[in-house]
Amino acid sequence: MRLPRLFVFAALLPAAALAQPGVDANRPTDRPWPDSLVGGTAPPADVQRLYAVAAAVDADRIEADVRRLAGFGTRHTLSDTVSDTRGIGAARRWIRAEFERISAACGGCLEVVEQRRVVTGERRIPEPVEVVNVLAIQRGTSDPDRYVVMSGDIDSRASDALDATSDAPGANDNASGMAGAIEAARVLSQYEFPGTIVYAGLSGEEQGLFGGQIMAETARAEGWRIEAVLNNDMIGNSCGIDGVCDNTSARVFSEATRPTETEQEARLRRFTGGEVDGPSRNLARAIDRLADQYVRNLDVMMVYRLDRFGRGGHHTPFTNVGYPGVRIMETHEHYDRQHQDLRTEAYPDGTPRHYGDTVEYVDFDYAAKLTALNAVALAAFAGAPAPPSGVTIEGAVRPSTTLRWERPDAAENPQLAGFRVNWRLTTSPQWERSVFVPDNGEAEQHYTLGNVVIDNYLFGVSSVAADGSESPVVFPGAIGAFDYAPGE
User: Fold this and answer.
1) Measured between alpha carbons, how far is residue 197 from residues 143, 188, 192, 239, 374 in Å?
2) Omega prior to 174 cis, within 30 of 0
3) CA distance 233 to 464
4) Does pTM surpass 0.90?
5) Positive or negative: CA dihedral 283, 288, 292, 297
6) Using CA atoms in the order 97, 98, 104, 106, what is the torsion angle rounded to 10 degrees?
7) pLDDT in tens, 380-423
8) Nearest to 87 by CA among 152, 136, 132
9) CA-based angle 120:124:128, to the nearest 5?
C-alpha cells in the first residue's frame, strides 16, 4: 500500500489549474450534501434503504439477547468455560450459535469464525487464559477486502477485576453492545453490499483490551483494509448518575490524529492543518450526519477525545495500529452500575442505593436507537465506494484551491458515481459546503474551487455511489488517509 502523497506547495505547481464549470462553489448549503451540478447531476441526497435499515431494528429482540447474556451469571474472561449455563464459555458458544442461526436464515451469508490466543503474565490475567473472539463476516460482493466493523464486548466484571466467580451480569456493560452487534447482523444480512461487514464479539476488554488487540493485529498481519471500526460499549443506559434522563443523544468518541503519525507528518501538520482531521475524526463526522438524516430523535455528541477521560475501549487497539475507529455509547453513564458487586446500600437519607449492572436498568428502546445508528453507518459505508486515496491539495498564494485524488478501483467499486469536494471554516466542527464532481473514469481526478482561498478553510474529498451512499471525507495527505499503513 503506497503512502499517500503529501501537500504540494506553490513552487511546485503548474502555471494554471483547470476549474470545472457549472456551479457557484461558494454557495452555502442548508442540508448535508447539496444537489450541486458540475457537468452532471448529483446522486440523490437520501439513500432510501437506510431509512428501512433504521426502522428494522427491534428493541424486543435486543431485550431478549441482553437478558440471555446477563443470564450467564458472569462473563468474566477468567470464568468457567465448560458449563453450558454459566461463564464466558457458555456465553461465547451462544453468541456463535446466534450468528450461525442468522446465517442459516440468509442462506449462509455469514462466515462465523473464532480468533483465539492464550494470554498470560498480565496484571489482570496472571495465569494462562485463552481469549476468544467470535466474528460473523458478511462478505462484500465486489470489494470483499474492504471492511467495516461493529464490535461489542462479550466479557463482564464485578468490583474486583480478578473476581471470576461472583455474579457480574453486565447487562449494560456490555451485553447491550453485544446484543446490538447481533441485531445489526439480523437486519443487514437481508441486504448485499459491495464492501464487507464484520459483526464482532470481542473478549478480554475488562482485562486489558486483549480481544481488540488480537483482532487488530490479525487484521494488520492479513492485510485487511479496515475503513471503520464502530466500538459499542454501553449503549443502553439513558438515565445517568448526573440525574439526567435522555434517550435522544449518543456520544461518539474519536481521536484527532493517528498515534502512528511520523515526526515528518506531524511537522507538516503544523503548517497545513489537520489537527482535528484524522480518519477517526472524519469517521465520527460521517456518523453524526447519518444520525441527523436517518435515525429519528437521535443527536450525536461528537467528543474530541479518544475515549472518556483517562479510560479506554476496544476501538483503541485498532487506532493503535493505524485503523480508523470510534467509540459509540450512551451520553449519561451511571457509575453505580459499572464494575460493581451486586449489593444494596443506603444514601445518607436512608434511601436504598442499588449497585450492579442488572437488566432492569437497561433502556431497550434506547439501545435499539443506538443499534440503528450503527446499522445505518455500516450499510452506508459498506454500500459506498472506497474512500479516495492519494488526496493532495494545492493553492498556496493563489486565489483558488485544487484537490487531486486517485479513483478507487473500478472493478471493486462499480457503484461509484463521483466524488464530493468538501470544505469548512477551520473552526467549524462539521463539513459545511460541498460540490459534486462526476467520475470521469480516469485514474487521477481533480477539481478546482475558484475564489476559495486555501488559507481560510479545511478541505477533503469523499466518494459517492449512484444511490447516494457516501464514504467518510478524506483530508489531504497522510494525515487524513483511510488507506494509510504504518511504515509504508
Assistant:
1) 11, 9, 10, 31, 11
2) yes
3) 30
4) yes
5) positive
6) -160
7) 999 999 999 999 999 999 999 999 999 999 999 999 999 999 99
8) 132
9) 20
